[in-house]
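thread from #wetlab-drylab

HS: before we spend reagent money on co-crystallization trials with uridine-5'-diphosphate, can we at least see a predicted complex? here's what I'd submit
DV: go for it
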Amino acid sequence: MSDKPIYKRLLLKVSGEALLGDQSFGIDPAMTAKIASDIKSAVDMGCEIGVVVGGGNIFRGVALAAKGADRITGDHMGILATTMNALALKMAIIDAGLECVVMNAVDMPKITQTFSQNDLDNHMENGKVVVFAGGIGHPFFTTDTAAALRAVEIRADALFKGTQVDGIYSADPKKCPNAIRFEHISHDEIISKGLSVMDTAAVSLARDYSIPVVVFSIHSDNGLVNILNGHGHCTIVEA
Ligand code: UDP
């Protein structure tokens, strides 16, 4: 086992679904504690970490729009959901023994810091874990796109996307037992094959700034650390 992580500065994307645990709605404290513990193990290896958190465990604007309501208001509600998740994750990360700050794409000065590049650079240089809330701060976007954007802004060596399965498959492995898992794939192949791992805007942003995307199971024991040690189960997306 190597002590030196294969990527030093990471942007970790945690979906709202990952925070559900066994519940159908809301935040399972066991899941925030597990994710915080994985982050702590990576920091102990020398990694610097930013986290973008989703909101789908609480609210998605598109679900409201499907019932005929206003999409923009729905997306604002989704942005608030990401902020709740970010606060829950921050508590767990502090409980795990790390320093942590939430930076929000939307101004909520009584609750979170507002994103600024200068403050971000200072936080990361001081070894704090930065949790990004609010997506990119505008409706019609996703927190996957925010993850790619924040990965560029923190100058990440890789974007880690924690999912329900251990990588990118040729088809949904829960529905197609013959689906194969890719070890490596390019950003362009994800787009051309229409693989539904992240939205196209996120994949193309990562491609344009040469950021590898590592897709792994957020539920696996020591999944993150094993990948950082060079022997984890995952799909690596790179040119
Ligand atoms: N959202 C948004 N702009 C953004 C990011 C998110 O409007 O930049 C809203 C949108 O309604 C979205 C919800 O927040 O459905 C939750 O984000 P997302 O669906 O990306 O969360 P995840 O699927 O990762 O849990």
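DV: The pocket of uridine-5'-diphosphate is lined by residues 15-17, 54-56, 60-62, 74-75, 78-79, 81-82, 135-136, 138-139, 141-144, 146 (CB under 6 Å).
HS: ok that's useful, forwarding to the group
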